[in-house]
Specification:
Blueprint: E1 3-8, E2 11-17, E3 20-26, H1 34-48, E4 52-59, H2 65-80, E5 84-88, H3 92-100, E6 108-110, H4 113-118
Helix pairs in contact: 1-2
Amino acid sequence: MAETRGASPVVPNVRTAGDAIVASLRGEIDLHNSPQVRTALLKYLEEGKPRKLVLNLGEVPYMDSSAIAVLVEALQKMRKNGGKVFLTNLQPRVKGLLEIARLDSIFGISASEDEALAK
């Protein structure tokens, strides 16, 4: 697994694991920093053409609709290339938001990165 530094403080770690890209996100993701997340994720998706994108949200206590839009855009890009997106380590507030928006059924939700990589 190759570890790389993330593109911003909001995406501090990105690594490859086989045909997957695993990215850790950190902090509240809102209108001010969701463009940084978008830029970083799309860069890695374009460069690596992964079959799986695993986003570790364990250090994300809150996200707004702009962050959700970034996740959906990444999902659409992955699906277009035949890939899948998994969200891991969801904090209760973020999990609740995804459930309210009924997005928990379109993303793969996993308890851990290892679980997501095994799927």
